[in-house]
Amino acid sequence: MTLGTLVLLRHGESEWNAKNLFTGWVDVDLTAQGEAEARRGGELLREHGLLPDVVHTSVLRRAIRTSQLALDAADRLWIPVRRSWRLNERHYGALQGKNKKQTLEEYGEEQFMLWRRSYDTPPPPIADGDEFSQADDPRYAALPPELKPRTECLKDVLGRALPYWYDAIVPDLLAGRTVLVAAHGNSLRAIVKHIDGISDEAIAALNIPTGIPLRYDLDPVTLRPVTAGGQYLDPAAAAEAAAAVANQGR
Ligand SMILES: O=C(O)[C@@H](CO)OP(=O)(O)O
């Protein structure tokens, strides 16, 4: 049996990436550069003959718009779409809206990195009345309180993303489809951690660049990657951009 191909795509640069602010579930748009990155991602898909049959996105506009710009560039805007909050960026709790450089200076390197990249230490929860809270956001109105986060660590993200991975994405792969997942730095880190079997410690050093498709061919029995870490369609640009993500705040 042959499995379909998985393509992971982090949204292009967002307005808050450009301003160096913690974003999480705040629904900011792409910058002009982010739009260009998304189109370039779609061109890379077309150049590699990697044409998606179905797309899964989060419910945040930076991922939705990235998927549309990329699919338009690949002439695949017509394919079926599924969206889920389970692919959202990690909820950044009380850090949402805070500047990364200022946070680093105020709390120091160790605390900053614990909040930003540790597997199981979430930032402090956001208050419901905070201007950057999603407590009253209608798109999450159907979620019961215990599922609606006020903060998340990467472990929490993996916990809420895995049901979607097995219930929605894996069935598409088993049907032989080329599956595009347009999502976020930390929701994609959670999925990559799972499929590549990366340890809780090692995942801290893994960063995903914006707008560059990451291809995974998975073994049909184990669902493990044939090539560990997958293959970026533009590896040189991906390495440079991932290093820039790692250095945010400095
Ligand atoms: O702010 C965020 O939501 C994320 C992604 O942009 O940032 P970080 O890479 O610091 O986890």
UniProtKB/TrEMBL annotation:
It catalyses: (2R)-2-phosphoglycerate = (2R)-3-phosphoglycerate. It is an enzyme of class 5 (isomerase). PROSITE patterns: PG_MUTASE. Keywords: Gluconeogenesis, Glycolysis, Isomerase. Pathway: Carbohydrate degradation; glycolysis; pyruvate from D-glyceraldehyde 3-phosphate: step 3/5. Catalyzes the interconversion of 2-phosphoglycerate and 3-phosphoglycerate. This is 2,3-bisphosphoglycerate-dependent phosphoglycerate mutase. It comes from Luedemannella helvata. The lineage of its organism: Bacteria, Bacillati, Actinomycetota, Actinomycetes, Micromonosporales. The gene is gpmA.
